Amino acid sequence: MKKYCFGIDVGGTTVKCGLFTTDGEVVDKWEVKTRTEDNGAQILPDIAASIKAKIAEKNIADEVEGIGIGLPGPVDDKGILHGAVNLHWVGDRRIEEEFSALTGYPVKAGNDANVAALGELWKGAGVGYDSLIMVTLGTGVGGGIVINGKVIAGSHGAGGEIGHAHVTDELTDKCNCGCCGCLEQVASATGIARLAREELAASDEASLLRDYPAVSAKSVFDCVKQNDAMAIRVAKRFGDYLAKALSSFAVVADPQAIVIGGGVSKAGEVLLDYIREPYQKYTFFACRETDFVLATLGNDAGIFGAAKLVL
Amino acid sequence: MKKYCFGIDVGGTTVKCGLFTTDGEVVDKWEVKTRTEDNGAQILPDIAASIKAKIAEKNIADEVEGIGIGLPGPVDDKGILHGAVNLHWVGDRRIEEEFSALTGYPVKAGNDANVAALGELWKGAGVGYDSLIMVTLGTGVGGGIVINGKVIAGSHGAGGEIGHAHVTDELTDKCNCGCCGCLEQVASATGIARLAREELAASDEASLLRDYPAVSAKSVFDCVKQNDAMAIRVAKRFGDYLAKALSSFAVVADPQAIVIGGGVSKAGEVLLDYIREPYQKYTFFACRETDFVLATLGNDAGIFGAAKLVL
User: Fold this and answer.
1) I want to staple A69 with a disulfide (CB 3.0 to 4.6 A). Which of A8, B63, B196, B291 is the partner?
2) Average of pLDDT values for B8-30?
């Protein structure tokens, strides 16, 4: 194996880029603007130019193993991207071939959330494991599944799209995906704020949550830490929904660990307590003691995982 | 690759054995009694003796690629069996090494339900696919997941134990596993009969189901075919529970196909109609058009899949 590889994480506003040694040390990190005009025609050429400049700067043209690239859209198990709304890309694209032609190096592509899971496995909270489910609790709920060190991309690129598991029949409003009752609707930052607003509206009970002009997932867990009864109820409802979904995922993938990341995970270990307890209640005995850990790489998980794709 | 392989499916009363060509033609099939006395100490030696006799009979000692064995217990992704209640085997066993020592050939072991899924992929309903979820609707609900041609065994051997996904909060009685609200409680043959008894008890509505002294899954689908309103309601409830669970499994594994087998699947294509419709309602758009097919290998799926394990 050669000495270096690149990990690229393409987002709707910026592209995060990393130059790594093939044993996973960060050599350099930088960003490129994502130019979405003209249906994003310049995005791949811009990234290729930036990588070539970095290779020239470091004088490592013969020492690059390859380039991994995480993309904000479904990438199937053949490496084909099925559109990427935030990049203004429509239709199927063979990104690996396209980007390899632009750069001259081998390229592997993956969905950004799946790639982030691989990053955590390689150099983050998942070190020492070879299988995990990563749950990213942000504005939505993303996820990635890694089994025996390999991402489950899925035959339609929907492997790890766990935010859209059906978890409740109680909702009548639709998720962004068009279904009702998705995990994302009750366990994302947005979903936790929804549960809090429901609790606030249901009674006049005193709660620290009432001091916030707009209640958020962060305010819920801040109030949980101050032992606020209503905030604790919200956290329990969130944990119960997520645990039920995880209990189903566990009997499919049976990973060694479940890694919780995304903005909501900044609440810290207390968050895991609210997930682990109902998880043990709902989950098949053989996988009841699955480890729960907080993600550690933050926004860098994507470039780490992308780099690992090509190794 | 050599010309022959063996596929062995160990059950609590009989061991099914198959001699196959390595391209999957059945050369011979036979059974061995499962002797569970003395903590099942004779089970592996009995099978080994039977295989050796078959090899001598056919004079193929130098032409055997290996032996695959499906076992009624959790087999993890390292090939270790974690007990098998029906065989009276307690504790962890390295079956691959043990059975290889007894026979002199390479051995691969897997959980019986997972191995059956691999069998359907190789030579049954899954031919042409390389990923599927198999759901076995029998006395219980079993399952197996195959991704890119490989079984997901799981880190605790619980990969594919989909009968124990939590699907409803409405039940207060416990599943055999100790949890409440498992898929198996509402979608197995036993579960379908339970739903039918609930419907019968809930009203005096006329129904063909009332003509059966003991209602069963078979009687439910027999009555569905005669357009019985109550039986149709039961089938819809069953399909709704199973579809919700499958919608969660789909966003984890995103297979090309869902294969339905087990005794309940003898109801035929009508069964798939009751699953497919709610599945499309609950499932993330990218995997909504996943194919549904009926298993075709019946009780032979296990020996086919076991044989495939070693190839």
Assistant:
1) A8
2) 97
Contact across the interface for B256 and A131, Cβ inside 8 Å: no
- Which residues make Cβ contacts (< 8 Å) with residue A94, sequence separation at least 6? A79, A80, A81
Q: Hey, are the CB atoms on A285 and B254 less than 8 Å from each other?
A: no
- Residue B69: both structure tokens together: 């064995």
Record: contact A252-B256, CB cut-off 8 A: no
Chain A stretch 236-295, residues whose beta carbon is closer than 8 A to a beta carbon of chain B: 244-245, 247-256, 281-287, 290
Check if B162 contacts A (Cβ < 8 Å). Answer: yes
Query: Chain B within 8 Å of A156 (Cβ-Cβ)?
Result: yes
Q: What is the dihedral of CA B46, B50, B55, B56, to 10 degrees?
A: 100
Contact A282 B157 (CB under 8 A): no
**pLDDT digit string (tens) for A171-180?**
999 998 999 9
Q: Best residue in B145, B251, B283, B289 to probe A by mutation, most A CBs within 10 Å?
A: B251
Question: What does the block give as tokens for A29?
Answer: 């990190």
**The total number of residues written for chain A in this structure:** 311
pLDDT score for A199: 97
**Inter-chain contact A155–B77, Cβ cutoff 8 Å?**
no
Q: Which residue has the higher pLDDT, A276 or B85?
A: A276
Question: What CA–CA distance (Å, rounded) separates A15 from A34?
Answer: 6
Nearest to A301 by CA among A116, A54, A94: A116
pTM > 0.80: yes or no: yes
**What is the ipTM, given to two decimal places?**
0.94
Query: How would residue A254 be classed by pLDDT, with cut points 50, 70 and 90?
Result: very high
Q: Nearest 5°: CA angle at A42, between A39 and A45? A: 140
Share of chain B above pLDDT 90, in %: 99
Residue B147, chain A, CB below 8 Å: the answer is yes
List A residues 174-233 in contact with B (Cβ-Cβ < 8 A).
Answer: 177-179, 181
The pLDDT confidence band at residue A308, using thresholds 50, 70 and 90, is very high
Mean pLDDT of B181-193: 97
**Contact assignment for A256 to B148 by CB distance below 8 Å:** no
- Alpha-carbon distance of B246 to B19, in angstroms, equals 34
Res A275: pLDDT:
98
pLDDT at residue A168, rounded to an integer: 96
Q: Do A254 and B157 touch (CB under 8 A)?
A: yes
Which site among A254, A280, A290 would you substitute to test the B interface, given the most B Cβ atoms closer than 10 Å to its Cβ?
A: A254
Query: How sure is the predictor about A57, in pLDDT bands with cuts at 50, 70 and 90?
Result: very high
In this prediction, residue A94 has a pLDDT band, given cuts at 50, 70 and 90, of very high
Interface test with A, best of B254, B280, B281, B290 (most A CBs within 10 A): B254
A75 shares contact with chain B (CB less than 8 Å): no
pLDDT tier at B182, thresholds 50, 70, 90: very high
Q: Cβ separation of A161 and B254 shorter than 8 Å?
A: yes
